[in-house]
Task: structure prediction
Amino acid sequence: MPELPEVETIVRKLRPAIVGRVIARLEVYSAKSFLGDRLDLVGSTVLDVGRRAKMIEIYLDRDRVLLTHLKMTGQYLFQNQDQLMAGGHPTADWHRQLPGKHTRVQFDFEGGARLFFNDQRKFGWIKLVQKPELPQLYQKLGPDVIDKKITVVYLSEQFSRRKMTIKQAIMLNEILCGVGNIYACDSLNDARISPLRSARSLNPEELARLLTSMKKIIASAIKNGGTTFDGKYVDIEGKSGNNQSKVLVYGRVAKSCYNCGGIIKKITLGGRGTYFCSDCQV
DNA sequence: CGGAGTGTTAGTCG
DNA sequence: CCGACTAACACTCC
Result:
C-alpha cells in the first residue's frame, strides 16, 4: 500500500527493467483493473517510466501513457525469462506463482520478460490515456511534497482556510501530494506537532519545522527503498523495503517515543489510524 | 463466527 | 466552500 517513497522506488526499478521493451501480449484477468481502449497496445515500445503523486506513468510510443494507481494493495512484479535462461539468478519472488490469484493484468514483452500487475483488493487501476490528457487529469493535484513549490508561504495560505486537523490537511492531495498515512504520522512526530491541531493554528515556525520533517522523512524512506508491513508493498522483484525499521510512530502503539520516551497512542482521525506521542507532540 | 481494521481516494450528502 | 461519511474489495486479526 504504497505512498510516494514506495511508488518512487518502484519507478526507479521499473525504468531500467522495461524501457525499450516491446509489448507482445496483454492479458487482463480483471476487467475493472484496466481502463481505456487497449486495442493496438501490442507492438508498442516503452519509452520511459515516470511518477506524479502516487501514480506511475509508463510512456509508450504514439503519445500514449499507461497510468497506474496502486491504491492500497497494488504491486508491479517483473520477471525476465530470457535472463533466467541465460543462467542469471532467479529474482527474489521466484517462488511466487505468476500469474497468481491476485494477478489482474499481465504484460508479455518480446524476448520473454513479463510484467504483472497484482492487486488483492482491486482498488488500483491501470488506465491507457493520451499524453496530452495528463495535465487535465492532474489538474486538481497540488505539487508533490518534494517539489520546490511547496513552501511555508504556500502551506500557510492553503491551510488558513481549513478547519480540519493538520494531519488530515497534509494528506489532502489538492494541497500537496505524496504524504500518506505512515509518513503523515511520522512527519508530525519528527516535527513535534500534534496531529489534532487545526491546520490553520500552525504558526510559520511550526510550518517550517513540519515541512522540513516531511521532506526529510520522505527522502529517507526513498533512500531506504520504502516501508513494508505484511508484505503489502514489495518492489518489482518481490522484495520488501528497508524503511520499516526506521518508522517513528506508525503502528507503534503503546511503545515508547524515540524523542522523549512517552507512550505512543493510537486514535482515529478522518477514519484513519493515527499514531502520536502526546508528551512531545503539542 | 462477527466485526473491525488495512499504507487510497472519489463521490455523495448535508 | 467545507467537512463528515461511504464505497470500491479481499483478507487478517481479535
